[in-house]
Specification:
446 residues, 5-stranded parallel sheet, 17 strands, alpha/beta, binds iron/sulfur cluster, 30% helix, 5-stranded mixed sheet, Rossmann fold
Amino acid sequence: MLSLFKSKTFGHGVHPPESKETTRKLPIRQFPFAPLLRIPLTQHLGKPAQPVVREGQEVVRGQALGQPDGYMSVAMHAPASGVVKRIGLMPSITGQMVEGVYLEPYPSSSQEVLEGDPVDVTASKEEIVAAIQSAGIVGLGGAAFPTHVKLNVPDDKPVDTAIINGVECEPYLTTDHRVMLEQQADVFMGIRYVLKVTGAERAIIAIEANKLDAADALRQNLPDDLEAEVLVLPVKYPQGAEKMLVAALLDRQVPSRGLPLDVGAICINVATTAEIGRLLPHGRGIQERVVTITGPGVEKKGNYRMPIGTPLRFIMDEVGVTDDLTRVFMGGPMMGPAASSLDIPVVKGTSGVVAFTERETGKVLDRPTYPCIRCGRCVDACPMFLNPSELGVLAVNESYQRMADDHHLMDCFECGSCSFVCPSNIPLVQYFRMAKTSVRKAAKAS
Ligand code: SF4
Ligand code: SF4
């Protein structure tokens, strides 16, 4: 099918500097094993995996370390052959300590990986859903939502379109870009599974216009018998967000607090799709992922296939950092959280590690905050058509419930566009994160 350029996009949005030039052309390289891997049993939304190994046990690369604890949970696999040194608490990106497996890889641990029973695309929907859960696959774009749950579409919500999200609108990140260039067979195979499981009639691979080489390569190699097309969208942040993508591609509005499923679509990240296509035909589990390591604070920037559980400190030692490194983001700088410690590991949802120096962070962190001047820029930027200025005033007054009840706070998906454009440097998105946490806690307590 023809690749089309779709000039239509979602409403509002912003244009932060893309900053992808340095790594976009760098092929994916294998990252070495750290001397001690830290594999949290919670790397996904839902219940932690239940450990199925004991301290002192030898494991082989790809062996299950943890099995899903119920439907809303996924398996964990050994990223290297080695010895389980300890099962215990470890720091996580949320700042909380979580249970996990400390694994000491053998110096000789090779890239060979344990294989299980293959599940091919002719298997039943139930078998494929179970295989995705057993493979431990979650949304690799950052959300880490269990993929088997997302794809297990209920009968009363028929889906006609599967959107394969290769937009990668976060500045600096080039993970999905490289996957689309280097793992096309995996992407196409993954799409076959996605179509089979969801019952969607067609797939759209969505790509922004700053990755035309990937769009062209995918278009040229698209198998004739695959009901898929490649659509190129104008560059705009946060176009990779599900609701924005559905609006841009299908002209459908996902309702407030709703899902793409409510309008007949599902969205799945392109790297997640590639993992389905790479792992299921071999009965393997996910034990590594592609991560962009970049930012002005990094010397050896690149796109690396990284064992899950690699601690940030080891990454920084391997790639080399500048003396004035001040802040490291897990994911892109717009939505990714800043790492509170270098002891936290790369997990399945880590699409990038972006390191900034004093030069960049000083510009933001040392800038004073001024009162709102009612310029309306945040209102023009918000892709959810909220009024961040008004919400900001309510947040300062701690009127969190009012923000939710009367001003659609819970529709905010923390894209950071409002903070990005605010000339008064008001930390709007931080206010909204805090407010949402408070509203959720209150709802739980009631
Ligand atoms: S962070 Fe929330 S309020 Fe701000 S622009 Fe994004 S969706 Fe709108
Ligand atoms: S962008 Fe900042 S200053 Fe302008 S209206 Fe919004 S909150 Fe106020």
